[in-house]
Each structure stands twice: as structure tokens, then as C-alpha cells.
Amino acid sequence: MSDTEGGRQFRAAWIAGVRRHFPGEPKPGYVSGWDEMPEWERSAAGAVHAQVRDLIEASEGGAAKLSREQKSRFVAISWTAQMYRAFADPKPGYVADWSELPEWQRETDADIFEAIEVERH
Q: How far apart are CA 88 and CA 59, in angstroms?
């Protein structure tokens, strides 16, 4: 799977998670389509998708035993690394520690990991 395809799947899982977990009406940017995303964000989505996919494959089934929190943390850490790659001085919210993220975002990150698990089977 190409990074673009993976990025699109990542974005679709993000949007589904935001719609499921965000309290109230999300900001338009949270649910904008792939074509409306800036290039740095598309690149980051593809890279994080690849990192999750690689972890799942390399663990030979072990990743299925991770808790939702562990899955969420992996996605969040992978995303944070991409923000440091994309920006010399990223906004604090882009690189906040997992424990500082709102509950809806933690749940959405876990959903993303689980969506990638499903696509691998």
C-alpha cells in the first residue's frame, strides 16, 4: 500500500473517530477531506499509517494484545514525531503529551490504530 493510500485510510479513520467522540460540533478542519488537507498533514498521515502498519506486521500478532490506551499512545507519539519533522517550532497542541490530549482525541487515536489492524486482516 502506498503512503498516499495509507494516509487516506488514516484520514478516514480520523474523521470517523472525530464524528464518534468529539463533544459537540467539530471544527471544519477536523473533518475536512483529503484534498483539502495541507501537504504536510497528508505526508504525516501517510507516515503514521505506515508506522502503525509496520508495528502490527513486525509484532506478528502481538499488537492485537495491546490495550486501547497503548494503541492510542502509539498513534499520538507517531503523530508528534511527524509534527517535529514538519515544523521547526510546532504549536504546543500539536506536540502535547498523550496525557494532555482531550479524551475524544485519545479515543480517536485508538480507533485509528484499530482501523489499521482491521485492514491488515
A: 32
* pLDDT digits 0-9 by tens, 54-107: 999 999 999 999 999 999 999 999 999 999 999 999 999 889 999 999 999 999
All three cell numbers of 121: 486482516
List of residues 6+ apart from 61 with CB closer than 8 A: none
43, 79 contact by CB (below 8 A):
no
What predicted TM-score, i.e. pTM, was given to this entire model? 0.95
Quickly list H helices, the chain: 3-21, 39-58, 68-86, 103-120
106 alpha-carbon distance from chain centroid: 10
Q: Which amino acid is at 34?
A: W
Domain ranges of the chain: 3-23+36-120
Residue type, 65: K
Query: Number of C-alpha atoms within 13 angstroms, CB side, residue 10?
Result: 26
